[in-house]
Amino acid sequence: MRKITYRDALREALIEEMHRDASVFLLGEDIGKYWGGAFKVTDGLAQEFGEERVRDTPISESAIVGTAVGAAITGMRPVAEIMFGDLTALAMDQIANQAAKIRYMFGAQAKCPMVVRTPFGAGVNIASHHSQSLEAWFMHVPGLYVAVPSTPFDAKGLLKTAIRGDNPVLLCEHKLLYPLEGEVPQDDYTVPFGVADVKREGSDVTVVAVLFMVHKALNAAKELEKDGAISVEVVDPRTLTPLDRRGIIKSVKKTGRIVIVTEDCRTAGVSAEIAAVVAEEALDYLDAPVKRVAEPDTPIPFSPPLEKYVIPDEKSIIKAVKEVV
Amino acid sequence: MRKITYRDALREALIEEMHRDASVFLLGEDIGKYWGGAFKVTDGLAQEFGEERVRDTPISESAIVGTAVGAAITGMRPVAEIMFGDLTALAMDQIANQAAKIRYMFGAQAKCPMVVRTPFGAGVNIASHHSQSLEAWFMHVPGLYVAVPSTPFDAKGLLKTAIRGDNPVLLCEHKLLYPLEGEVPQDDYTVPFGVADVKREGSDVTVVAVLFMVHKALNAAKELEKDGAISVEVVDPRTLTPLDRRGIIKSVKKTGRIVIVTEDCRTAGVSAEIAAVVAEEALDYLDAPVKRVAEPDTPIPFSPPLEKYVIPDEKSIIKAVKEVV
Amino acid sequence: MTTDLPKEKLVEMYQKMLQIRGFEEKLFELYSQNLVPGTIHLYAGEEAVAVGVCSSLRKEDYITSTHRGHGHCIAKGADLKRTMAEILGKKTGYCKGKGGSMHIADFSIGMLGATAVVGAGLPIAVGAGLSVKLRKTDQIVACFFGEGASNQGTFHESLNMASIWKLPVVFVCENNLYAMGTRQSIAMNIENIADRAVAYGIPGVSVDGNDVLAVYETACKASERARGGEGPTLIECKTYRHRGHSRVDPARYRPKDEVAEWLSKDPIKRFRDKLLRFGVVEGEIQAVEKEVSLQIEEAVRFAMESPYPQPEEALEDVYA
Amino acid sequence: MTTDLPKEKLVEMYQKMLQIRGFEEKLFELYSQNLVPGTIHLYAGEEAVAVGVCSSLRKEDYITSTHRGHGHCIAKGADLKRTMAEILGKKTGYCKGKGGSMHIADFSIGMLGATAVVGAGLPIAVGAGLSVKLRKTDQIVACFFGEGASNQGTFHESLNMASIWKLPVVFVCENNLYAMGTRQSIAMNIENIADRAVAYGIPGVSVDGNDVLAVYETACKASERARGGEGPTLIECKTYRHRGHSRVDPARYRPKDEVAEWLSKDPIKRFRDKLLRFGVVEGEIQAVEKEVSLQIEEAVRFAMESPYPQPEEALEDVYA
Ligand SMILES: Cc1ncc(C[n+]2csc(CCOP(=O)(O)OP(=O)(O)O)c2C)c(N)n1
Ligand SMILES: Cc1ncc(C[n+]2csc(CCOP(=O)(O)OP(=O)(O)O)c2C)c(N)n1
Ligand SMILES: [Mg+2]
Ligand SMILES: [Mg+2]
Domain of B206: which CATH number? Predict the structure, then answer.
């Protein structure tokens, strides 16, 4: 199968959906013809679809998302880009209090089919305001879906599902994934929400990982196989809401052990919820304590040795796995 | 000992600290002489300390918190009020990206001694935009402390600690607690951060609860004692950051069972972190799965029977306890 | 002052104003009897704004609303019964009891709902305007908000965005002088909110918000401008709420003579006098008044007799 | 144009401008050699703004800054060595390597730090102003931000708050015509950001931001007003960045002739010519230029030779 990058996979999804459905349009800062998005995901789209449908906005995160909400409840399917995930903080009210609640508050009179795309993640030395992973905030917002594609295939398929669905979705991308290549079919396909993907089968320990951490987990798994002959199963939830609890538990029942690897800071992060699910629903199958591998509870520092120190890596995953096996 | 309300305990803390330290001042919407705060916590304070130190603001949550940040890093000790906890979403950037990170980003050149007081919680039929419990978002913000007083004693003591400390603190209050009476010493005292309080000793099961849920847990404990002779230990963390993990684990080691009761919605909530801590650090002591009692993953509905249905109550706590014992 | 409006339109406007007033006064009563859960923010005194603006709209046009939303709802044509039922938390209410007073909505008439986060409705109105533009219909959007809301960041971002994209949005600032207990002069350093339009390169107009015809005419101009693709307008309607901010507020922060002065400018009383001068006869007016009071009674009866939702319904409608 | 300023002050201003330019050009070079981690937003071309404004301030006055903050830092009097070390991620940097280019700060000279969230510095400046007022010192605060930031909600909320409380804040909008690739006209429907002052009842002034003396004089007036307790001013400085938005941006969205025109208005070149006309002799100017280039070399050497922080230091400084 042909290989394309995560960035191109996202772009293809946008292009195909915009061709398929005239109600899909894009808005965000510098997504248009002069820049094509800070990470170039929308490069060329303004040229292809015009500036009405690929809309450069002022620096007004709150109004970007709010505008998407207003458009969504009146028949459109907006895809908003927030240039950096950290900046979702500026739009938190529109995301969590408006987009996510509008259907419920109004007794299902409205639907709010919109997507907010945003890149999370550290690793490029751009410090505390441009490097966070904040998925957990949004898992704690009923009414919102949260997708976390780790491969080009998932990126395209999940974004299509997000656009076609009738609910607001936060699509979490990752800065380091954009250049990553992977197989993506030419034909139209979608990836369903709420279905975890076993990215690698194994029998000794379940490693649940999201976004860029999936790849570090896969590397670690390879290493561990060679090394101490530990067989690691890598499970990628692909969406955090809905969370495929059954899929995760199924794997834990098989392996009896779980290590959860996420890039957000440890306390009250994504891994906390997954750990809690296991502690509630699969405790009897556990042969060892649950392990979380995550960033320590600090902001992301700038200097390369500091940043490297806080981001979970293969070594920390291997160490955690060895501790539970 | 004299009894005063939670509201008065908070007010006393503010008054005493303002007398003690001229750098303490208050700002917020309608906290001044015309209203005294939506929940009357600051009633009379503008009259006592003047409008310079008890400052009514425009409806500008982001600037309220940002102003507090700017004042804090230049020598003052602001206490900001956000009228409803749901509205912290509007100030999320200033809380999470500015206040909490300013010390770290700037290499400890600054300190940011400020408090944001805000009421969370449902139960008075004011629907989706005025009823949430969003503590978990803030637990996921390194650099910020999160206090959750459940009694007048804790309210006064924790608020004093918050004001005197050199870090930003979110003080989570609860709408239904304001009229609650409890013993509060006349003398100056503080309640330390990071020290859980065993609100009731017991031996069969640990119930960790926060804010208003502490009282429901205590009621349930009484019921259970009568009823099936189950002895419940109720642990109140009092601060979520820092979280007294040792205190919680100590209790779990004793009882072998844990039920976590919080009013936020279940997924990725406060209870997830506590469950994760136990699953990581005390798994071997558990005789039963961890249990979370929390709100279902919905916005808070308006109508009384609907709202009542989603808020955890004594019955749901008793049920959960019985399931693990 | 004269008017070119047909008598039927005038009477219809009067009727709507009466409906709002009657509805609010009845709610006040029900609240005192503990029949209204939660809180309510009454619109009494500001009827000329909602009715003046909504009378300039078509059915398919949109409005966005606030915590003080009953008036907007009724003016846009919502059913009194279902509105009342919602505020009482009943299953027959517009939002099946999930929303209540602060989240009233009727999408079937373009009433896109009330948000209780002050200022949060503005970007949503901008989005509706953008949607109209992209769908190439000739709808417009009227966006209601208070003078207090005009200090929110969303006000700024929204007016700017609507301006650069020339969206068909009419921003209607209901300046009732107070945001809760905070007088305008405490919260901003200008007299006229309309002056803020300068910052966005759009027209800003202040109008007597207790004169329904003045509001109507101003709104018509703004609506035409919007429908004509010329972009948004900021209209400031100077008005006053008759009661406290919310049901429990005695509003002691308002000077007595200020209250008295504004009560004497009651928009309903003024419009009634005008109607007589325009040749509507007393009998006709009284007939409308009678009809409205029956409608309100009926709404109350309907709401009171309606069942509450089943508790488990709380779990429905989170996702589509 | 003449000036009453003493020659030393003029030369000092020239020196600061040169320091900024030299610093930025050197950084550009280091970046190309892969010696600068992350990204950088260069200030070259806008020196007259930072220097004009900061020259009107006292040491104990405060400034807040942005992602494009090196210039503000240097103009306020920061040490070139520690600034450079921070941008290179070294332990000897102002923030011990934790902040980097986008979070540079020097609290010892009242430089309250750069925030990389566009617009987030404005309320912080307001808070510093409020602090001054409550502590009853005679400090003032200069708050730098771009024209792009003036579309953020925080701009609106902050100017409003500073106005009602008459805070000693000078809001300095660096209008360099672009926010990343977005031309001002795409993002707002007005020509002069200064016009937005009307919405807050404060003075708004537009000034040639490439003329350091014009900026200085405007800033002096605003500073006096602030120090005198009369409240904030909004100053808009029309300027232009010589390079792309950030280090990797070729800035193809800017018309060539526009770039050429602005390059011809280089604030340093213009000020140099003026200095000569004011009677500063060529030799004196060259001496300054030489000195500055030595300072830059020294800063680079210091930064390059400084150690990186130890990895575990990442865990420090989260709480006080
Ligand atoms: C963002 C936000 N801040 C504060 C509140 C609490 N609150 C509800 S209504 C109100 C006053 C609003 O004033 P204004 O916009 O003038 O509208 P009015 O009530 O006068 O109609 C406030 C502060 C809120 N609901 N939302
Ligand atoms: C809130 C926010 N939105 C977007 C960005 C990404 N970003 C960084 S700089 C910038 C442009 C800022 O433009 P302006 O305020 O004019 O300052 P300039 O870069 O021109 O100096 C943008 C969009 C950000 N850092 N913060
Ligand atoms: Mg008002
Ligand atoms: Mg700019």
Answer: 3.40.50.920
